[in-house]
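Ticket #4471: complex job returned nothing on first submit. Input attached below:
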Amino acid sequence: MIFLWAFIVGGLICVIGQIMMDVFKLTPAHTTSTLVVIGAILDGFGLYEPLIKFAGAGATVPITSFGNSLVHGAMVEAEKAGLVGVITGIFEVTSAGISAAIVFSFLASLIFKSKG
Amino acid sequence: MSDKKKKKLTPIQQQYQDFAEKREPKRPIIKNCIYAFLVGGFICLIGQGISTFYIHFFHFNEKSAGDPTVATLIFISAMMTGLGFYDHIAQKAGAGTIIPVTGFANAMASAAIEHRSEGYVLGVGGNMFKLAGSVIVFGVFSAFVIGIIKVIITKYLGGF
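Support reply: We reran it on our side without changes. The output follows.
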């Protein structure tokens, strides 16, 4: 069942992005940045975690979850260390994604040559 | 174009703007949305499959499976970007390939590959975040503001 919800919720978030690009004529960079901020705000109100429970990868794979996990890491660390934790904990949860993106992108640039 | 910008233009320029607007090809919004839904949903489905795989065979729990899943998706999309597949899909699917985390990896990998000719330090290192940097900047800044507000409310004002 979670596979179906992952498909539907993930697809719907992409449709929101498509509407922002087509109807409001935003560039892809504006669209993704806006969605990240929306994800962060949703987690600020504690609304994103229930969505992940409900839809699994449908909520964790779209870029909105990046904003969610930034806030999440900050809050977990802030519980332990107070206000400083907001600074030190921001990348705690997302480090896997960012590190992987840097490492694999660098590897790709070593292996592949640009075409055209 | 917004009205504010229009006022600065001369009448002839305004006429041209209207003329150009009429001849701009209409975007097939509904078709684009369907493609975005199907491709975006499919990528999330793959993500769910990978995450289930990690839970069953490597004994991650539902929370900790997220990190390796995202890393795997990023690896796949970086390699597909290098081989040139990703852009083919992205042309049709639009936001369906941009919004999932694979789009983030695609933006970084394509920038890295494209600027390789300028050298590894100034080209690859300096330009890798050229497209994807905005996501990180706005994500981190908004997370910082929200984190500070939340900490102040819950810790120092004693919650709601």
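Chain A touches chain B through 73 residues (CB under 8 Å). Closing as resolved unless it happens again.
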